[in-house]
Amino acid sequence: MRLSFYPVTRQNAFAHVTLLPPPRVPWQITGNHWIALPCIHPADGSVHALGVLHRGSRSAIELAASADFLSGTGVPLLKPTIRVGESSRDFAGAQMAWERALGWIPTFSCTIGSIVVRGTIFAPYGRDADAAGAVYALSVENRSGEATDVGIGLDGRFGHRQLRVRSARRFADENVVTRGLDDVILLQGSAPPGEVAVGIGADGPAEISVGDRRAEEFTLRRVVRVQPGAREHVAFYIAVGPERDGAEAAVRVLRRRGWRELLSSTRDALQSLQQTATNEAMDRLVNRNLLFAYFYSVGRALDDAHYYVVRTRAPWNGRGVTVRDWEALAWVIPAVQLADAPLARELLLRVCELHGYAPGRGVHYMDGTLFEPGFTLEGAAAYALATDRYIRDTGDDQIVEEPVLADTLYLAADDLAARRDGRVPLYHTEVSPSGTPPAHPFSLHGNAVVAQALDILRRTLDEETAREVEDPEAVRAAIRRHFVVEREGKDTYASAVDLAGGVSLDDDPLGSTFWLPLYDTVARQDSTYRRTVKGIASEPRWLAQQCARLIGPEAPAVLQWLRRAPLDGGFAAEEVDADGRARANGGDAALSGLLAWSVWYAVNALGEKP
Predict the structure, then answer these.
(1) To the nearest whole percent, how much of the chain has pLDDT over 70?
(2) pTM of the full predicted structure?
């Protein structure tokens, strides 16, 4: 038997993907399905960028003051300021103390002279609160002995718009700042009709200036009189629309509903999404990443209002808003399903609609257009696995009557059948879930996933078609026969074979051997399985592989490691160091979904404890 080793390196583990370093600024993050606010500066509360999804351009569109907004060193898009008497300043140097309410709403407090300022930045979400916009709410408390006029403002500069699939490209037309109706400031491109416009308004009478010093600069300020020992509130509404009229209308809606009602509804909705494990630290880890996946891997396009699943809306991740069906179906939807089964149902059908015409065929743009061809067994099989998981968790077996899902399952069955070897009931793949060709065409993880998919398809498809579906037990028997090899006198699982003697023992980070019990290929206590996974290098590097370890015998140690791991501000990063600190492609929302689900599963289903 020929043993061949293909070490996983920074170059060959994830082909054709830029591994971006994490940002130097520990950004505060929030958003809803309409708008992303990924760059809120912790030093002064300024907003350096906002983003939306745009179906027509198959991209994220982001607005900022300058192209290098991720550095956090330039002028922000929006900066809160305070004026007491004749003295005006921002919040930099005021020693802001930040907290994250319900794992998703950034709040801060600071003291400037005799004024205590508290701020809350949130994107409304929930029944009657879901809106294409965000709210910057500030309260000022007067701790002096006399009444004081306090001006609370947002100063801004609109100097940059970019379109981003994976890399950023600047719009060619000019950025325009104008004053609209009802004391609204409008940000838009000069060339109509434009892909996105932003409206900014206050919750009451406001002083507005546009272009006093530079054409792209603006100020919106409210003045309130604060009695001694009293507190007053000011809120600014930031709304997005496909063009200026829609942005103005969205500001009016936010004003009508009011920031207090919007915040209350958002808190109630976020509370309903929270999960409970066994201890506070695990709960924080699960809920932080679950909400990040919920809002940053799932979004509604501004121009058609439909849901789309993407890898991440965070602009410092090299995978951008492309997505594989495996990531959408096996990473994102299971996490969403923990929190919101109706949305998980809608997303499952949506993924079938957009990507199911070519199951497993490669990486897609957000709208389903093929971005990078490369067939994966896991991608084709994922539709069956996601359907079965949804039915088991919700009891809603009527979903299989949906035509788009039924059609996709039949297509997936046909595509898998076409990949079967002519002699052996094993299936070959073109690339692994990471997008690189495996060492050999028959991968262990891929065939384990296929076996479970075949089991589901035999129970789901019509009786005549189901009879022609390969027996999953035959595939599992073939796995034991062809993937179990001898190494140093003991049996172990190979990660890939060619059925002609070629064998690779190197574990694939995204298609790891650790996952085998999840697909009913082996029991967690199986000696060959345990021997195999104990032989896999334990030095953490790829977070997806750390998630897989939660299924294996090292689960308690990995949970303990995750409790301490800084990650990327607490969110998933594709590559990490030994201590769990992000090294590359942070802000990975789909991977956050996998992290949240796998930790929840290890604690609640497997009974593991850190």
Answers:
(1) 97
(2) 0.95
